[in-house]
Amino acid sequence: MVKNMKDKIVNIFNKFFKTLASCVAPIVPVLVGVGMLKVVLIILGPNVLNILQETNNTYIVLMFVADAGYYFLPIYLAVSSAEYFHTNKYIAGLMGGMLLSPKFVELVNEGTSLSIFNLPIASINYANEILPSIIIVFIESYVYKFIDKHIYEKIRDIFTPLITIVIMTPIIYCAIGPLGTMLSKLLTEIILLLASLGPIGVGIYAALLPFVVMFGLGGTNLAIILSINAQGPDPITFYSNVIYNCVLGFVAFACYAKYKKSDSLAAGVTSFFGGTSEPALFGVALKDSKALFSTILGSFVGGLIMGIFKVKTFAVASFGVLGVIASIGPDSSIFFASIALIAACITAFVCYYLTHSNNKQ
Predict the structure, then answer these.
(1) What would the DSSP string read from start to end of 256-279?
(2) Which of 91, 150, 158, 331 lies 20 to 30 Å from 247, alpha-carbon distance?
(3) pLDDT tens digits along 210-248
(4) Where is average pLDDT lowest: 29-33, 172-176, 180-184?
(5) What is the DSSP letter of 25?
């Protein structure tokens, strides 16, 4: 009986990760495209070659084009999730768009209290988030199919979308919103706890970052990073994210070295140089448990070394390899920051290569 229960739990997790990867996989080209664009802008921008200034119109336009690739993630994911759950993708796209409605975002930013049918709406900014759209479309697929099946055929085309939207609106704003708030608070408490544990805590935080991104908490994680950096030198969050992105990039490079898949190379470049992990995470790590383990191990090693030598960052820079410059400051720790990063990447690369030594694809 215990074995059956264990098998059921394992199957649930496997199905969840498969669903997550399947919903995200179709939008990986968008993430790779805008990620590579950001890499080019970082190289040409004021922090590296200084060919393009921050006030240059070309730089400004291309930067907000790149940002659009991530800001509108809820819509892209809603459409791709609709294909996976076999529901109307245009209605699903609307569900994602509701999270980013300009008026809603404006009211959230102003701190305005909102409600629908006397149910309170949580004030949350859903830009860049992944998990909410997938959950929303999963629920919407059942609602839409149920209504479409039971409504009179001659009015189906009008009332199925209408009723679906009316039913889903409070679910989206009142149920998914509070869930996001709960996860955000939980993540904040966990990070503050880990920060108090010393090197082990830093290592654990870095090792958990694949799951933070996987569960759509990247926006919350960024808010915490900005908050901690605003209070002074950051001993845990920002550089752990740099290590994680570079480690994941190296795992993707290892996948390319082993199997010569060009998409792995592109995902690796995007993560390592651009500081954007989604293409490599969903395109490489989530498709291969050994790649995910290598990422977790490498990130832990890097975080541990970072904690031992008390690496701190003094600004929020690129989340890719160029983020190492953020450790330059009044009490510079760039040498140990570099050691932590190199050790983490080598650990992950070797672990991936050894665990796949007898594999063929």
Answers:
(1) HHHH--HHHHHHHHHHHTT---HH
(2) 331
(3) 988 887 677 667 767 766 766 778 888 889 999 999 999
(4) 180-184
(5) G
C-alpha dihedral, 165 to 167 to 173 to 174, nearest 10°? 180
Which residue, 131, 132, 167, is CA-closest to 146? Answer: 167
d(CA 44, CA 50) in angstroms, rounded, equals: 6
Long-range contacts of 100-109 (CB under 8 A, 24+ apart): 100/71, 100/72, 100/74, 100/75, 100/126, 100/127
- Distance (Å, whole) CA 218 – CA 215: 8
Token duo for residue 96: 């994602």
| Calpha distance 168→233 (Å, rounded) | 43
What is the rounded CA–CA span in Å between residue 25 and residue 28? 5
Overall pTM > 0.70: no
H/E stretch holding 114: strand 114-116
What percent of the residues of the chain are helix, what percent strand, and what percent coil, each to the nearest 5? 75, 0, 20
Enter the tokens of residue 144.
């839409």
Residues 258-286 have pLDDT tens digits of: 888 878 899 999 999 988 888 899 888 98
Q: What is the mean pLDDT of the chain?
A: 85
Q: What is the mean pLDDT of residues 117-140?
A: 86
Classify residue 168 as exposed, middle or buried by CB count within 10 Å of its CB (0-12, 13-18, 19+). Answer: buried
| Residue whose tokens read 């393009």 | 52
pLDDT of residue 107: 92
Across residues 92-102, what is the average pLDDT? Answer: 93
